[in-house]
Design a protein that fits this description.
The complex is a heterodimer of chains A (389) and B (846). Chain A has 389 residues and is mainly beta. Chain A contains three helices and 23 strands. Helix content of chain A is 7%, strand content 51%. The longest helix of chain A is centred in the N-terminal third of the chain and has 18 residues. In chain A, 54% of the residues are buried. Chain B is α+β, with helices and mostly antiparallel strands and 846 residues long. Chain B has 27 helices and 22 strands. In chain B, strands 1, 3, 4, 5, 6, 7, 8, 9, 11 and 12 form a ten-stranded mixed sheet that branches. In chain B, strands 13, 14, 15, 16, 17, 18, 19, 20, 21 and 22 form a ten-stranded mixed sheet that branches. A two-stranded antiparallel ribbon of chain B has the order 2-10. The longest helix of chain B is centred in the middle third of the chain and has 50 residues. Chain B is elongated, with a radius of gyration of 33 Å. The two termini of chain B are 27 Å apart. The chains are: A mainly beta (389), B alpha+beta (846). The interface between A and B is large, with 51 and 59 residues.
């Protein structure tokens, strides 16, 4: 949900593209005079530049399959798949395939005859965690939403960057994912086990006190997954569970928010749990942290910040010197749930245009009296900047 | 002993500063010309390759199509359907900002990573606002580049020269139309000079400005392996192919090889003349000191000792001269570079050079050649001097006698050497280097004959001179034959330099006449209309040709066809109905040829193309068309001088069938009888105003402009041969001064015998003139021979041009005049000295 990674990702990516082709712009060098108080992430995520875009301020009526497609008037949007799959021999893998759309400007420029003109940039992140070999692979793509290079086709739904593709045939809840890079590839079929869950209040997910600092956010929290996964030249027939997060909006982090920890967990009792913790610049948890509990029958319950606690129990320091949380004790008294979440392998840090940790996790604990296990994905952002300071 | 000998040597040189200075100058100029040409050539070529490398970046291959480029859908298909993401689209062309021609590079910034690294250690500056790039807002650099609103980047230098600051809006002229652009940022740092004339814009703007919507100029590929390259090549449709990028750069660069080889040859000519001068100077230094040498030998100095001291002297002179020459060469190289670049840009490729790159190798080469030639040239007289018997050394007549016995033998050797040149031309039919070598061998061979010719002419003319000028006349003319030991080499040097002017002038004049003749035949229409880049607006064409008074019009398109071997110029023409063809065919039945041409079943090849590709009428050429390779017969060869590598001409119908490029870039308008061409021109200009910037001119103006470019091309050749003449004049001056000074005792005797100072001065002046005249006469056959070799061998091999050789009487007369005047100039000071001889002082010597 709060995966506002996008802004960071996109902004930084674009800066990096410039670095790559035009070399580091002086403007990007960290200048203490320019940013005296705030970290760079906060600066990058400031809500400057949102003028002219509609804001997510009011609840709306969701309609499917249309809302699976693009909402181009909003500044940003993403299709965020994560999943844990295994082959018959019990080799476990985690994967992440995310396609972001980001509007470069609120209104279309005067049209040119050139089909390359665009106001949308698309970014893709694709990662595979080979959990038994403890190897992590990540790839990144970006393209303009023009000339057929990247885009969204509404019906039947297709979102693509180059040959990375997310497709959905229609209303039956089935999806197809395809992505590849030098060492990794996936070709997966996904089948929704539960209906769409609207996060926040009827799908409006508020992120800070300021109106409009919100997004429209829904999930498919449990997607039965089968297909083929290739890593390091070896191909596996795999099956497992995936999770889809869809979110769009125009706002950005509030001035005093630094990053977030996000959990998407699928438990052995058939229930799913999404929690996020927005961290403030001073290190404290933001009251706008929230979550959604999805029961085995698909019924959902919104969780307020005061209805759960997240206790960090361990840390891991990446090769780049970034210190991430690496083990959590999650407590949701209202659900009578006490679980421990730990990374399925330590190094699942994405060193792409932006540096963050997004990885497969393993869950065990108690739901009431019953032991539960589970798997899921955790995203941790904003720690590299803390390390910088 | 040695220090004393050296002191004698230094003292001698010091007492003859003129001679010393002239010897050094001769070496210096020769070396300077060689170094300068080397530096200019290398700098221009290196700049081109560097700029191509910078612009190509990591590109390993380039996917290119026909004249219309590549369909942009192919790019999307390669990435989206086939997953080839190591690809980047490029739309390139030239645009004009204010009065400056710039190269527009339209790119997709998202695809650029892994391709162009526009500034490794440098960077890009944007507006001075530190937040300009970082937040992704409408104002950010990438946001603006992608917006299609005309944001561009250019070098800081270009921006400064155009008085533009980041954020400024300005007009870009492309395809003859105006577009609005904004300077979003500037390149600074190391890439500046390479990107000096480059504007980077988003591909959407580049397509719009260049009128290339839907098309890409090329797709750059950074293949990770040969397998990937092959896989991509496999997916390309007919008419599109993938070429290695480095090969293309080299092919383009090598287009200018012939031009540069010719310049190098010219610079060697300067060195060759320089060698004669050095020999000349050293020979004098020896001859004049034969007394001293005789004394030294008598005092017990060994032959080796004499040889050593003379060679040490030569090494010193050679070193000083070469050093000065290298320094002068750097300066001269800067000047020549401008001329080289202008020619390259006129005829081959656009290149930007901020200054001459001084390569150590070139400088060392110059030093080595200068020193080696000096030593080699000095070796002969030095070796000779070391063989002097102590007593004989004192007698000059011995020396003259020896020379006169050598002369006929030299002539025979020369004739044999010249025959070798003929053999080389015959054996190596295609090679330019062989042609140039033959030219040099021819010059060398003829040089050996010159003393003989001079001696014979002098002997024959002496009686005639006596009849005209009495004893003084006989002394003046006959004296030349008997002083060949000193004048021979100077005559040779002057002859060669003057013959170079004859050869080059005769070649250029013949060439110019052929071009002029060809222009008259080609420029059949009354008014020509063209667009600088891209295509003419079709609606505008309709309006222009429907003006009352336009009888008919021809339309043409000039395009490049990319092949693995380089680019081929393709000219598509639609002939004006009822008008004669502006193309002169070389052979073939015109009716048949034009019928096949119109039907599109055959093409015409320019004579340069035919020569370079060894194509004869009836042979087939293979064109990579949109439906794949097509073989077409060449119906005929046509005369043309407008493209260095030649061109293929086809009918518009055939062009449209083969290539996806509907554009027309020039029209030839035929004005109806009775309509004033000037008035029509103004009418047409009025119609085009505010719609498209077109170049319009009547055929006279086109003709003048074409010849102006032609003349410009040969400026550098002229500069080089004048430098050679200058070297020769220096030489003759040195020779005459030395000769006349040496003869001061003889003049003293003549004065004592009753000759007036005026008569003595006149004697020297006449003799000098006669030496010049002899050199001039000798230069005539050599010059004509050179002209023939330049036209029939060098130009043909270098450019494939077919030139009708003229017999340039004026050039020959000028050569005689030049040689005589140069010698007279050289003889003035000696003449004055001779006139001022005081008999008693001169004779008192002994």
């Amino acid at each position: 949900m709060i995966k506002r990674t996008y802004q960071l990702v996109i902004t930084t990516i674009i800066a990096n593209i410039l670095c790559a082709c035009l070399d580091p712009p002086t403007a990007l060098t960290e200048d203490p005079e320019a940013f005296p108080q705030r970290s760079r992430i906060a600066e990058l995520l400031s809500d400057r530049g949102v003028a002219g875009y509609p804001m997510a301020t009011e609840a709306r009526t969701f309609s499917f399959p249309e809302d699976h497609g693009a909402h181009e008037t909003f500044r940003n949007e993403w299709w965020y798949f994560t999943g844990n799959v295994a082959d018959e021999a019990g080799h476990w893998f985690g994967y992440q395939l995310t396609l972001f759309r980001f509007a470069l400007q609120p209104h279309a420029a005067p049209p040119l005859a050139s089909s390359w003109q665009t106001r949308h940039a698309f970014i893709g992140h694709f990662a595979v965690s080979d959990l038994s070999r403890e190897r992590f692979h990540v790839a990144e793509r970006y393209a303009r939403g023009a000339a057929g290079l990247a885009g969204v086709r509404q019906a039947p739904l297709a979102v693509w960057i180059d040959d990375w593709l997310i497709e959905s045939a229609g209303t039956d809840g089935s999806w197809r994912l395809r992505a590849n890079d030098d060492e990794i590839a996936i070709e997966l079929s996904l089948e929704a086990v539960k209906p769409v869950v609207l996060n926040g209040v009827d799908g409006l997910s508020q992120k800070s006190a300021e109106p409009g600092n919100a997004s429209y956010y829904y999930s498919l929290s449990r997607l039965g997954t089968t297909g083929r996964l290739t890593v390091d030249g070896q191909s596996y027939r795999v099956s497992g569970l995936s999770w889809l997060d869809r979110e769009w909006g125009s706002s950005a982090l509030a001035a005093d928010q630094a990053g977030w920890d996000w959990f998407a967990l699928q438990l052995s009792d058939g229930s799913d749990l999404m929690l996020y913790n927005v961290r403030r610049s001073d290190g404290s948890a933001d009251p706008f942290s929230a979550g959604t509990a999805v029961a085995a029958d698909g019924s959902a319950r919104h969780l307020h910040a005061d209805e759960f606690t997240i206790d960090v129990q361990d840390h891991w320091v990446s090769s780049g010197g970034v210190r991430y949380p690496a083990k959590w004790q999650l407590s949701v008294p209202a659900l009578d749930l006490e679980i421990t979440v730990r990374p399925a392998m330590a190094d699942q840090e994405l060193v792409t245009s932006v540096r963050y940790w997004e990885g497969a996790v393993i869950v065990d604990g108690l739901s009431g009296e019953l032991a539960v296990t589970g798997r899921g994905y955790v995203e941790l952002t904003g720690y590299d900047f803390a390390a910088d300071q | 002993m040695m220090p004393v000998l050296h002191r004698a040597s230094v003292a001698y040189l010091w007492r003859h500063p003129w001679q010393l200075a002239l010897a050094i100058t001769g070496i210096a100029i020769g070396v300077a010309v060689m170094v300068a040409v080397d530096l200019a050539n290398q700098s221009a070529r290196k700049a081109f390759v560097i700029s191509m490398d910078t612009l190509n970046g990591q590109t390993t291959h380039q996917v290119v199509g026909g004249p219309g480029g590549v369909d942009e859908k192919l790019y999307a298909a390669l990435r989206v359907e086939h997953g080839f993401t190591r690809t980047a689209p490029v739309v390139a062309g030239s645009v004009r900002v204010a009065d400056r021609q710039l190269q527009l590079l339209g790119v997709d910034v998202f695809a650029e990573r892994g391709f162009r690294n526009f500034s490794a250690p440098g960077n890009i500056k944007s507006a001075g606002d530190p937040e300009m790039i970082s937040p992704l807002t409408t104002e950010s650099l990438v946001g603006r580049l992608l917006s299609g609103e005309g944001a561009v980047l250019m070098s800081a230098e270009a921006a400064q020269q155009l008085h533009l600051q980041s954020g400024d809006s300005f007009a870009v002229q492309a395809s003859g139309k105006q577009f609005e652009a904004t300077l979003a940022g500037v390149f600074s740092g190391d890439t500046q000079s390479v990107l000096r004339d480059v504007v980077v814009a988003d591909i959407s703007n580049a397509q719009q400005w260049l009128g290339l919507n839907g098309r890409l100029t090329r797709i750059d590929v950074n293949a990770s392996s040969d397998a990937e390259a092959a896989a991509i090549a496999n997916k390309l449709p007919a008419g599109v192919e993938m070429l290695p990028a480095a090969g293309r750069t080299q092919n383009t660069a090598s287009m200018s090889d012939a031009f540069m080889t010719n310049l190098t040859a010219m610079s060697f000519l300067a060195i060759l003349v320089g060698v004669f001068l050095i020999y000349n100077s050293m020979a004098f230094a020896v001859v004049q000191r034969r007394g001293l040498i005789g004394v030294l030998r008598a005092l017990g100095v060994t032959r080796a000792g004499i040889l050593r001291i003379l060679l040490a002297e030569a090494a010193l002179i050679g070193m000083v001269g070469s050093l000065l020459g290298v320094l002068a060469g750097i300066w001269l190289g800067e000047q020549l570079l401008l001329l080289v670049i202008r020619t390259l840009s006129d005829h081959y490729f656009s290149v930007q050079v901020s200054g001459v790159t001084v390569s150590t190798l070139s400088l060392l080469k110059g030093l080595a050649v200068g020193l080696a030639t000096t030593l080699a040239a000095a070796a002969v007289p030095a070796a000779e001097a070391s063989t002097f018997q102590p007593r004989l050394a004192i007698t000059r007549s011995v020396l003259e006698k020896r020379v006169s016995t050598i002369v006929p033998g030299l002539a025979v050797a020369g004739i044999i050497i010249m025959m070798c040149a003929g053999v080389i031309i015959g054996l190596f039919g295609e090679s330019l280097v062989a042609g140039l070598s033959a030219l040099f061998i021819l010059i060398l061979g003829f040089a050996f004959c010159i003393p003989f010719i001079a001696a014979r002419l002098s002997a024959w003319l002496a009686p005639l001179a006596e009849r005209i000028g009495g004893v003084a006349g006989r002394l003046a003319i006959g004296g030349v034959g008997s002083t060949l030991s000193r004048t021979g080499v100077a005559i040779v040097a002057l002859s060669i330099a003057v013959s170079a002017t004859i050869g080059v002038s005769a070649m250029v004049d013949s060439f110019r006449a052929s071009v002029s003749d060809w222009l008259s035949a080609s420029l059949q229409a009354d008014i020509y209309i063209g667009v600088q880049q891209g295509a003419m607006d079709p609606d505008l064409i309709d309006d222009l040709v429907s003006v009352t008074g336009v009888a008919s019009y021809s339309a043409s398109r000039r395009a490049w066809l990319e092949t693995a071997e380089g680019r081929i110029r393709v000219i598509a023409i639609r002939r004006a109905p009822g008008q004669p063809a502006g193309v002169r065919l070389r052979g073939g039945d015109a009716d048949t040829v034009w019928r096949k041409f119109a039907a599109g079943t055959a093409v015409l090849a320019s004579d340069a193309y035919a020569y370079k590709q060894s194509v004869l009428p009836g042979d087939a050429v293979t064109l990579n068309t949109r439906s794949g390779p097509v073989q077409l017969p060449v119906a005929a060869i046509y005369q043309s001088y407008d493209s260095n590598d030649g061109a293929l001409m086809m009918s518009r119908g055939a062009y449209d069938r083969f290539f996806n490029d509907p554009g027309i870039d020039s029209l030839g308008v035929y004005v109806a009888p009775g309509v004033d061409t000037g008035a029509m021109l103004r009418t047409l200009q009025e119609i085009a105003r505010d719609r498209q910037v077109l170049n319009m001119a009547d055929n006279q103006r086109i003709r003048r402009l074409s010849l102006a470019i032609f003349d410009r091309t040969f400026v550098i050749t002229n500069v080089l041969y004048w430098l050679t003449v200058f070297v020769a004049v220096i030489g003759i001056l040195a020779a005459l001064i030395a000769l006349q000074l040496e003869r001061s005792r003889e003049f003293g005797v003549l004065r004592a015998l009753g000759m007036t100072p005026a008569q003595t001065g006149g004697l020297v002046a006449v003799q000098s003139m006669f030496i010049g005249l002899l050199a001039g006469i000798c230069s005539l056959p050599l010059g004509l021979g050179m002209a023939w070799v330049l036209i029939e061998v060098i130009n043909r091999r270098a450019f494939g041009w077919d030139i009708n050789m003229l017999f340039p009487v004026d050039v020959l007369l000028f050569a005689l005049l030049l040689a005589t005047a140069a010698a007279l100039l050289g003889g003035l000071y000696p003449a004055w000295r001779a006139a001022a001889t005081v008999p008693a002082m001169a004779i008192r010597d002994e």
